[in-house]
Design brief:
heterodimer; A: 410 residues; alpha/beta; 9 strands; B: 122 residues
Chain lengths: 410, 122
Amino acid sequence: MNEQIKSARDLASEEFDTRTLLRNAVDQAIERHYEDFLIVDVDSHHYETESFKEITQYMDNPVMRQEALYQGMSRGGITSPDGSYQEIGGRITRYPLRKTERVPPSPHRDITLTERFMDAMGTDVTVLFPTPMLNLSNCPRVEVELELARAYNRWLCERVLAHAPRIKSMLYLPFNDPDACYQMVQEFGDRKGVVGFMVTSTHYRKNYENPYMRTYAALQERGLPLGFHAGFNWADQSLAMTNRFIAVHGLGFTWSNMVHMANWLVNGMPERFPKLKTIWIESGLAWIPFMMQRFDNEFMMRTSDAPLLKRKPSEYMREMYYSSQPMEMVDNRKALELTFEMINAPTQLLYSSDYPHWDMDLPSTIYDLPFLDMDAKRAILGGNAQRLFKLDPVMSPVKLARKAARVAAE
Amino acid sequence: MTDEVLVCREGEIADGDVRLIKVGPVEIGVIRHKGSYYAYRNLCPHQGGPVCEGLKLPQVVDLVGEGGTYIGQRFDEDDMHLVCPWHGYEFHLSDGCHVVDRRVRLKKYNVVQRNGEIYVAV
């Protein structure tokens, strides 16, 4: 090898490893001195399907447990209603290669894989969400959603959250059964690592209906935020009009949250539960100014349609929380800056990666924005989430070691 | 001033394969495709992904027939792309430009073949 070459790798003989795939993220973390402050990623994912056999052991109903073991839970193939090609036909290599990644026998594989991408990106704390279960609410059998939601929540608390102080979660609410939602909050609200509860937005339940009110009241009383995690359902009648993933994803991930936001606003939920914090997750940001403008305009003409609101819809929206990813960043800096102003980003925006999904964002998407000062960057990258979730600022050992080495060298 | 760095002997990189070399702090992907060599910095201009470690796939073409009717899709094998594995940004393998916005481009290095050896000019 030429002496000028420091190292060489031949891809044909390399095994997949998250740490290798994300080593450029490590460089970004070092260059930007992420070890100087806390980064909280409020939306990352694991694939609970990889642990599905374990999760089934947490299902109480033996009949359903046997059925689940036999059927599995993977997404369907190319012909199924949610047979998506998120991985862009194999172009996003971590999708097919993920299963080949080697991990030590302990801790749990999900902990190792999650901490690997956290450490690469410079994340200290992450809020971990499931992946295929984001569409569980579309299962026509409500009892399946209930059984699996409870099994997943139990499994996640016992096998992952209890052993990983840097991994948190907003647990799954089985929204097709309002009573079960309430029971879920009561049963799991105090568990280690539980920082809130999540509604998957791809369901067809109305969030303003009375049976949900005691769940909202319980969350408000406990100081736990309610998250609406966006998604898409390609079988939805309107989205079924689309024939390409870019269309169903671009629309579905915003539309699913826009419907729930509209219902949440016009039914006066922010007035009924003024201390309940809501987080709107994984819809990006561009939809928010649209809804603010549209609903303010209509509200000024139709205040009688939303009589509980004492202020304009945008004023309530400006007090809600939003996860950042997938942040619309192509050729629109002015629009993005205005969006940050409209949502009061320095206090309301929460950085999220959505890793390992195809449209993930690194912390540098926030850190490198030229119109934010350092205080705002740090707030969005971690401080806002720390305050909202009442997090202990547990810094990553990798960052602590990097900082110690830097200090020693100075 | 450019400096030529010896990468390998001719034939050492199999057709379709990539060799990643690190020259100083810079990682460069040397790609062999259909007998030709291409060299790009292994850094995607989008979010910094390891672009040279992605798939090589041809341009997808929507076939439109007479009267604007949709016929189907095919690959254009003459326009091979390098696809960033982090997010799927696609660049022409031939010049490193993004397939839609040519302002978004990879850092390209000249490849020199001499006396049975492959060099990259850095």
